[in-house]
Amino acid sequence: MRDSFYLAWQYLRHHRLITIVLVASITLIIYLPAALQVIVANAEKHFRSRADSTPLVVGPRGSALELVLGSVYFDKPYEDVLRLEHLRRIKEQELGQAIPLHARFEARNCQIVGTTDDYIQLRNLRMAQGRNWRMLGECVIGARVADQLNVQVGDKIPVSTSTAFTLDNPPLRLYVVGVFATTETPDDDAIFVDLETTWIIEGLGHGHARGTEHGSPEANLYTDITKENVASFHFHGTRDKFPITAIIVTPASDKAQTILLGQYFSPDETAQIVRPRVVMDSLLERVVMIRSYMIAIIAVISLVTLLTMALVIVLSIRLRHAEIVTMSKMGCSRFTIASVLGSQIAIIVIASSAFAATLALLTEVYGSELVRLLIL
User: What is the rounded CA–CA span in Å between residue 137 and residue 198?
Assistant: First the structure.
């Protein structure tokens, strides 16, 4: 048997191109279903862990999925808004902790999230550098924002869109005072400020030189908020009507959660309340269904590939008829010839299985990082 494997190995070495193609094909046939399973499992774990840490979300009526993706995963700026009075109503009932979010703007393609210190505690965010914001215009950035934008504590980031400033005035610039430690969550890709800073960006407030009238040439709007001019910033309008995009609610008890869920069933209610875990479970059920279809497609493709490979091997044996006749004339029995041919197939299958197992192991080890790169 050892001689058969030796002859088979020498033949495969001589026909390197055919060997590489066969090994690569079988490796992919074995690896792809395993890799798909690992990636989907890690994606489910990633989405569910984030949803599990967010009990309830209150937001404007519309798509529950868009609300969860926009407020929990910061998938994209959320256009529809609530009013601050919704937050006040929840707080007055004392049914749990309510954390406002205002996420309508971007700075250099990174999401700006206006919120409070309670959000930092909810997500257990830790400082890697600097400190938390203390006044208007200050921001704390996620770890990946710091890497992607190449900014650090002390730098300034211009807001991409601001209705508060005309073409004659440059956009508001956020002053970086801290960088959060890496969390491997969407928080790494966000820029965090207090709510009032987002309202400045919204155009609901501004600052200008003292004693100047609105609209006068001397009333140029500040684009950098500093300790010297922060006192001049003020807001116009009723505060209860100021916008927020969502409210994260952590109910004090199951009873409090039931009461909260029951308050948003009225058709006249302008807001909705959702449970992110339920919304994401519904989404992931579709993902699992798609995965099943993909595995079925991969299985069909694999079968066709195996049949093609079998045809190639059969044709290869027919083309090697003269070689087989020569081996027979040299005294090789049919069993020996079959052993040599079988050894070639065995070497290809063993090598392919080893490569596929190695790739599957690497996918398992780095699956979370791969999901982060694909999703975040």
Answer: 9
pLDDT at position 31, please? 83
Half-sphere exposure of 161 (CA within 13 A, CB side): 10
Q: Is 103 helix (H, G, I), strand (E, B) or coil?
A: strand
Task: From residue 215, give the alpha-carbon distance in Å to each of 81, 233, 234, 351.
Answer: 28, 15, 15, 76
**Within 10 Å of residue 85's Cβ, how many Cβ atoms?**
14
Distances (CA, A) of 345 to 106, 239, 356: 57, 76, 16
The answer to whether the CB of 189 falls within 8 A of the CB of 205 is: no
Is there a contact between 248 and 99 (Cβ–Cβ < 8 Å)?
yes
**Quick one: DSSP state of residue 80?**
-
Gap between the Cα atoms of 317 and 341, Å rounded: 8
pLDDT digits (tens, 9 = 90+) for 131-186: 999 888 899 999 999 999 999 998 999 887 554 444 445 578 899 999 999 988 88
Half-sphere exposure of 269 (CA within 13 A, CB side): 17
User: Which 3 state secondary structure label does DSSP give 164?
Assistant: coil
pLDDT, greater one: 35 or 148: 148
* Structure token digits, residue 230: 């922060």
Q: Residue 362 is encoded by which pair of tokens?
A: 């690497």
Could you count the other beta carbons within 10 Å of the beta carbon of residue 175?
19
pLDDT, position 179: 95
Domain range annotation of the chain:
2-47+284-375, 56-274
Out of 37-41, 57-61, 221-225, which region has the weakest mean confidence (pLDDT)? 221-225
Q: How confident is the model at residue 73 (pLDDT cuts 50, 70, 90)?
A: confident
Give all strands (DSSP E) within the chain, no chain letters.
56-60, 82-83, 96-107, 110-115, 127-130, 138-141, 156-158, 173-180, 190-194, 205-206, 234-235, 243-244, 246-251, 271-274
8-state DSSP, 224 = B
The candidate with the shortest Cα–Cα distance to 186, out of 371, 41, 56, is 371
Residue 132's pLDDT is what? 93
Q: Are strands 246-251 and 271-274 parallel, antiparallel or unpaired?
A: unpaired
Provide the Cα torsion 93, 97, 98, 99; round to 10°.
160
